[in-house]
């Protein structure tokens, strides 16, 4: 059939047609091309009237799936509608058996309208390059490059730096940095608590370091632990101090009692000495017998012994009181020494953690800013290439962030300086 000549087409129309043909030829497909099934897609086949005959299977690497009742069918390369038609054709008029609730078997003849075949899960897409967490993602209907990149954590230079030989994975670096930040916060508040303990305070400033960013619940748990430690330490120290102070007070009370007792015994000894002197004079004059002298001497000996025992007990109490006072000073000084040593060790650990965090920070900030590099920063632009299998070959399709991806696509992202991108 020949077309009638209707005049010369315009130059603009010809250029538009050529551009459309070029676009189709370079991409290998038109935007209206239906989706073709491939290995990795999950298909579900159900038979109406047979609830037990619901089979879900994945298209194998050879492009086939098993059919209910036996056999296989090749569906790779077909559209979902073509797959439905092919499976419906193969299964119609087949006889399947269904077990009834009473245990009997019933034959069931499949009619074309009884078969339903659909795609329940598509092949995943893959994101690689300058994104925070590259890898495999489940495909969702009408998925775009922008959505896939968002699920991958956004555009980032961390991955490109982490892919250098000998460099650690950025996710591991972030994890290590967070771990060091937690240890840094613990040491920081440990030092704050020690300073408060040295000053005799029961509270301390719970403001975290300005250069540390941790979840509020993590900081709160660290602060609470140090508060509990400060409370326990101060309570133990004050309890021990009160015990020693009470011991000194009890010793002073006993000392005062014995001192009064010593004064009374001193008077008794003095009286017994005077009595013995009077008896000796009377005995020398022949006015008293010798037994009276012996009694006076025994009384003087007994009172002198009691005075001596009281003096010894006073000396013991004096030494005990001095021991309690020295122990009080020793507890205070030893506690101060231990706290100062602990503070020095914590300062050393804090300095070491700060150095290690700064080293990790350099690795996590290759541009000098945050790890994730925003696209609209005016400095970097993403180059996106979608790698898609078309037939037996792979096609590389330059794309924008709003490009629609298909199951099985590989999205390659490269962040480039705006000037370099324009020059290319």
TrEMBL record:
Highest taxon in the source lineage: Bacteria
Limits of the AprE-like long alpha-helical hairpin domain: 176-362
Which positions, given as ranges, span the membrane?
none
Q: Which GO terms describe its molecular function?
A: polysaccharide transmembrane transporter activity
- Signal peptide feature range: 1-32
Q: What is this protein called?
A: Sugar ABC transporter substrate-binding protein
- Any idea where the Polysaccharide export protein N-terminal domain is? 33-97
Record-annotated Soluble ligand binding domain positions: 125-157
Q: Which UniProt keywords apply?
A: Signal
């Amino acid at each position: 059939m020949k077309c009638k000549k209707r005049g010369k087409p315009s130059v603009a129309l010809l250029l538009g047609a050529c551009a459309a043909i070029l676009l189709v030829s370079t991409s290998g497909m038109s935007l209206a091309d239906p989706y073709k099934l491939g290995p990795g897609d999950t298909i579900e086949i159900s038979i109406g009237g047979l609830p037990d005959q619901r089979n879900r299977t994945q298209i194998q690497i050879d492009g086939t799936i098993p059919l209910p009742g036996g056999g296989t069918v090749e569906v790779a390369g077909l559209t979902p509608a073509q797959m439905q038609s092919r499976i419906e054709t193969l299964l119609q008029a087949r006889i399947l058996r269904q077990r009834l609730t009473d245990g009997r078997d019933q034959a069931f003849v499949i009619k074309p309208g009884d078969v339903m075949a659909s795609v329940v899960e598509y092949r995943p897409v893959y994101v690689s390059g300058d994104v925070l967490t590259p890898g495999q993602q489940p495909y969702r209907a009408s998925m775009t490059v922008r959505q896939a990149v968002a699920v991958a954590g956004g555009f980032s230079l961390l991955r490109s730096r982490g892919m250098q030989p000998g460099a650690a994975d950025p996710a591991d670096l972030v994890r290590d940095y967070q771990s060091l930040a937690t240890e840094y916060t613990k040491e920081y508040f440990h030092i704050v608590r020690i300073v408060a303990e040295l000053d005799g305070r029961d509270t301390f400033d719970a403001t975290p370091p300005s250069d540390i960013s941790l979840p509020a619940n993590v900081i709160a748990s660290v602060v609470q632990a140090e508060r509990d430690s400060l409370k326990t330490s101060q309570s133990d120290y004050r309890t021990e101090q009160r015990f020693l102070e009470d011991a000194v007070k009890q010793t002073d009370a006993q000392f005062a009692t014995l001192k009064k007792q010593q004064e009374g015994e001193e008077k008794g000894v003095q009286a017994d000495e005077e009595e013995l002197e009077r008896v000796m004079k009377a005995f020398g004059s022949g006015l008293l017998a010798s037994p009276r002298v012996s009694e006076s001497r025994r009384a003087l000996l007994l009172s002198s012994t009691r005075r001596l025992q009281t003096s010894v007990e006073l000396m013991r109490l004096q030494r005990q009181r001095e021991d309690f006072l020295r122990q009080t000073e020793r507890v205070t000084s030893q506690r101060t020494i231990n706290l100062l040593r602990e503070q020095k060790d914590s300062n050393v650990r804090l300095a070491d953690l700060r150095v290690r965090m700064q080293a990790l920070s350099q690795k996590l900030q290759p541009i000098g800013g945050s790890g994730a590099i925003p696209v609209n920063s005016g400095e970097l632009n993403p180059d996106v290439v979608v790698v898609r299998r078309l037939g037996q070959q792979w096609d590389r399709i330059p794309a924008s962030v709003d490009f629609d991806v298909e199951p099985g696509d590989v999205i390659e992202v490269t962040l480039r300086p705006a000037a370099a991108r324009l020059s290319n």
